[in-house]
Specification:
Blueprint: H1 9-16, E1 19-24, H2 37-49, E2 54-57, H3 65-79, E3 84-89, H4 94-107, E4 111-114, H5 125-138, E5 142-145, H6 163-172, E6 176-180, H7 189-198, E7 203-205, H8 209-215, E8 223-224, H9 235-244, H10 248-257, H11 259-269, H12 280-289, H13 306-318
Parallel strand pairs: 1-2, 1-8, 2-3, 3-4, 4-5, 5-6, 6-7
Length: about 350
Amino acid sequence: MPQYHRNEARAWARQHLTGCSAVTIPSFSTDLKRLNEKAIRFDVERAIGMGFSYTLMCTEVMMTAEENARATAWAKETAAGRMGLFFHAAWGSLADNIEAVKLAEEAGADFALLSYPPQFWPTTEQEIYDYTRGFCDATKLGVMLFPIPFWGFERINPAGMSVALIRRLLKDCPNIVAVKSEQGFPLPAGICEMYHHFRDEVVISCPIEADIIPLMSLMKLQFSGTSNTQWMGDYFPKAFELARTGKFEAAMELYWSVSPARGANSAAVMNMRGTGVINRTMWKYMDWLAGFNGGPLRAPSSRVQDSTMRLLRNGLQAAGRLVATEPDKEFMTGRFPC
């Protein structure tokens, strides 16, 4: 259950939704029949040790709502108040997402990140509004909106989710607490527009590490998430806190130090453009390079090619952030097989 009442969610988030959020992709047993509790707990503990204040319990993999609730409960117990948890509303229908979020509430999730299913094909802003409000009304959790071109809402408005739509949702849904602002990605138009209009009402998040540190020379931002920045170790929480507390020069010194890794990530992401789907296997591999568990995901899942693995490994090594010394074949075994 959240630590706040639904009508207090916005104020609570402005006080407590700070720092950076990692992404925790679940780990499974070798036969893929069950969750790997030891590995999930290890990954949560490792993210805490790197300085992350939140993590997204990623559900954009083959798992049930009950399994997600179980993983969330393990993460909550492991974190023991040191890290908050985001529920990932990424199931295939509004009804499924409502069922899953209620389980996650009981398991200890603090906030919800609202995604939209591939089967959701709106042609009016009213349909987007109805889906979004339907989810928000059904949960006790504070909700982070997530405007991004993945959803295809640009068929309705060039911004995907317009200022007018978001203003209406903020008025009618008191538990919307943040906007993960990626309209127009990979350009920074979304974060600039959301910050301009709504920074005094809700938390404005830019999850793009390459953008947010430079933008913090111009914007007062308290939170960044959710994204897989944990693959660069403790760099991002450190750089973010330096920038947030006015030490911009020191933050940028760290920023430039990881340029090889950033470049490798950008090049790898180019392979996903146009699919509207994040390659979670690639993200899992990136985490493994940084010392997280790694391990197999259930089918159907994306593949990560040898050339992409070499690109990412070399980039992280050049940035001085590589942890994995094992050959890449060990990735599919994971550090804590069961």
